[in-house]
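Let's practice the habit of predicting before peeking. Look at the sequence and jot down your guess about where helices and strands might fall. Then scroll down.
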Amino acid sequence: MNNLQKEFLFYIEWLYRNYGNNWNISDFPEKFKNNMENLQPFINELNEKGIIKLSDDGLSLTILELPSSISD
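Done guessing? Here is the structure:
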């Protein structure tokens, strides 16, 4: 897992713990929005593992489980 992926996990866990579980990609900081091309495979992996649920259009997600529950 690279640093960007680790930061993304930390960020979605922080969002979930503090503000809830439904988010639009446009709500994310520029750092993540500008790197969506690099993050997309990782986001798909989180979706497959049941950590998040992506919308059909891929523009929003629901955090289903705390990311800290997954291991490398």
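How did you do? The chain is about 45% helix and 15% strand.
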